[in-house]
């Protein structure tokens, strides 16, 4: 009788381990994909927030944030001395933003980029913002222009404002 119970127990344990293993096989990739999509959605929301602040700045000043002479027209959140994303940001000093959003996985590959375009005597009349996404799923927003730029097997999410033609 003891051998029959041992055999039943072994079969139950094997069954439970098999079910747990199958559960693990299907659950882990689904959780990873959900986290990836959440991070990409957050990146898109950050660009939405930045775009709203830049547009308010543009409405108040008739031009968009423009670098001083001898500064690069494009800057990233990875650049600690950035004229746009740093502590001296025109969006922070004029109170258009409380804080500059940073990528949830701040690294040299995952940054936000701001580029001033169509520079004239009175300032920039266009700009674009971009972020590298981990996936290829886009949360579409009505009235929100964006462009996906395939680049070295990466997807770049780009939004434009003013006279910028990078999203055309």
Helix residue percentage: 25-40%
* Regions with little confidence, pLDDT below 50 for 5+ residues: none
Tally of individual helices? 2
Rounded to an integer in angstroms, the radius of gyration calculated over CA atoms is 24 Å
**What spatial form do the alpha-carbon principal axes imply?**
elongated
Global structural class: alpha+beta
Beta strand %: 15-25%
Strand order of the largest sheet: 1-2-3-5-4
Number of strands: 5
Order of helices and strands: HEHEEEE
Report how far the terminal alpha carbons are from each other: 78 Å
Q: Averaged pLDDT, please? A: 80
Largest sheet, described in full?
Answer: 5 strands, antiparallel
Integer tally of domains? 1
Describe this structure in words.
- The protein is 38% helix and 22% strand.
- The protein has 168 residues and is of the alpha+beta class.
- The chain has one domain (2-162).
- A five-stranded antiparallel sheet has the order 1-2-3-5-4, covered by helices on one side.
- The radius of gyration is 24 Å and the shape is elongated.
- The termini are far apart.
- The relative contact order is 0.15.
């Amino acid at each position: 009788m003891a051998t029959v119970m041992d055999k039943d127990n072994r079969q139950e344990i094997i069954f439970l381990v098999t079910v747990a293993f199958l559960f693990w096989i299907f659950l882990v990739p689904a959780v990873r994909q959900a986290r990836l999509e959440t991070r990409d959605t957050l990146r898109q929301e950050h660009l939405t927030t930045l775009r709203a602040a830049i547009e308010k700045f543009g409405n108040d000043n008739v031009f968009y944030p423009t670098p001083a002479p001898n500064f690069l027209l494009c800057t990233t959140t990875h650049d600690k001395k950035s004229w746009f994303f740093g502590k001296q940001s025109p969006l922070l000093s004029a109170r258009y933003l409380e804080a500059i959003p940073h990528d949830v996985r701040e690294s040299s590959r995952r940054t936000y980029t701001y580029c001033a375009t169509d520079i004239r005597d009175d300032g920039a009349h266009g700009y674009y913002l971009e972020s590298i996404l981990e996936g290829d799923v886009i949360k579409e927003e009505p009235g929100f222009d964006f462009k996906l730029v395939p680049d070295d097997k990466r997807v770049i999410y780009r939004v434009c404002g003013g006279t910028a033609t990078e999203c055309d």
